[in-house]
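Open question from group meeting: does this chain pack into something compact, or does most of it stay loose? Before anyone orders reagents, we agreed to write out a predicted structure and look at it together. Recording both the input and the output here so the notebook holds the full record.
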Amino acid sequence: MNGSTEEIKARINIVEFIGTYVRLEKSGTHWKACCPFHQERSPSFMVNEEKAMWHCFGCGKGGDVFAFVMEMEGLDFRETLVMLAQKAGVELPKYRNDVKEERGNKERLFELLELSAKFYEKQLLDGSGQKNILPYLTGRGLSLESIKRFHLGYAPEGWRHIFDFLQERGFRPEEIEQTGLILKKEGGMGFYDRFRDRIMFPIYDIFGHVIGYSARVAPGGDESQAKYINTPETVLYHKSKALYGLFHAKQAMKQTGKTIIVEGNTDVIAMHQAGLENTVAVSGTALTAEQLTIMKRYGNQVCLFFDMDGAGQKAARKSAELALAKELEVRIIALPFGKDAAEIGREGGEKLQAAVNQSVDALEYFLKQSVETNGKETPQGKRKIVEDYTTLLTAVTNPIERAQAIKALAREIEMEEKLITSIVNKAFLEETRKNGPAQGERQRDSFEAAPVFGKRSEMLREQIVALMLTEKEIRESLLRSVSNTETRAFLEKHPLFFFLLQSGGKEPLSIIEDAELKNEATRLTFRILESPEVASISEKEGKIEKMQEMAKRYSEELQQEITKRERLISIEKSLREAREKKDKEEEKRLLAEFVALSGSGVPSSE
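Structure tokens returned:
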């Protein structure tokens, strides 16, 4: 299987792959981004194309493309292997239990859902939905091209359409039930379709797999039930993380550095038609912190494009608070009252473009809204404005941004800035005490507090191991040249040295399974590549030559340190003997030599 992993890594360009998740920017010989695994203000996540590895100096995580997918998607190694093998076009060896495992694994469910999407799409374009449902969708301004691009479909009336269709293709009822497409009858005798007489909007994951559905009641259908029903929580679909349109929007989100969030599925499609392809919608839930984390991988700005009614504005306010807490730049797109993005889109894509271009900063927007609601002419109105705005400002973790917002509030309602500052800061401190610091801040503090170097000899050993991890030539050269038994024994105590010995012709990172050791290996490699001595050289040959020079210097210094340590041990032994003999002159001479050699205090007399 190790041969398969190496072939997969050779075929997948790690920069292009990770670039589908985060917005990478070139930085010297590396690529940088804000880490997708923790909150940070400045980029500390690095990807090296030549070494096919990544590392974050903020949270300490690192590894190869396999480690990235396992961390990002929450998959185990086997699942990651299968996913990346498919992407790379690598055929994996077959095992006797593969067929048995496949019947219940995610691949099988992905295949099932892909077939269901084709079934629903066929019903819309060529089946029972062609007469009424298709004209309804085009009447709402959706082009046939967009309907096909997003694979919209129709679930016909009836109780067993999708159930029978999938069973005929070899899927067991238990498997179909796992995807949320069918429900078990009361009493447990038989199954029936969950979605009936509904317009089907497939929801995709980041890789383009169907993971669930958002289903709208058909026009003229039974609206006594919910207008929209979504796939329930399954092994594939998690509503707190799912975003409608993400698969189609991710490239535009990365290119623009911002995400537009709308309320409905048809709003997403209308925005994409208007050229605003960086648009997504939440799926059957209010906006969540997990969804914002996904968006932050692609850029630091979110634009909220919600309805102007009470419910829409309440959702916009709550969403803005969550996004501000994530240290995102938040803007609000205001609509003419009573209209949504899909409705405006029918009037022309340029009107949607204009609405987006006229977005305003969220803090400015909600301050203006509060002033209009409460009035600033009376003391009571001013008090309500401050109270209302303070709840929003407690979500702003950046002190500079919070201070600017306080200044704007004081100027708007003509109150003393110091008074408002004290009110807001008191509320912010109470909120911090109640909830604690953000997870990303706790992680960053812990890593910044960690010591970087130990004793001189340990620092030299770490540098030598780092150089051996970085370049095969240096690794082979040093393994041949370290003949001194004491030096070799000292190097072997480093936890990564074992993998250097076992790597053979492979990259050591490929045989390290422990996550912490993998993180440490990538940290050390990037530290060498980012060091001023190496980073300043553009040619690969020049870099290797410089690293060889560094390795020689560090090895010589380590040899000196070990020789010095051996001499210090010898002096300590001689000192004990001199004290036993009560030879004061010899003791004095040895103490002076010990202090001169060690540069520290005298050894213990015990």
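Observations to bring back to the group:
Residues 540-581 form the longest helix (42 residues).
Residues 2-93 form a domain with the DNA Primase; Chain A fold (CATH 3.90.580.10).
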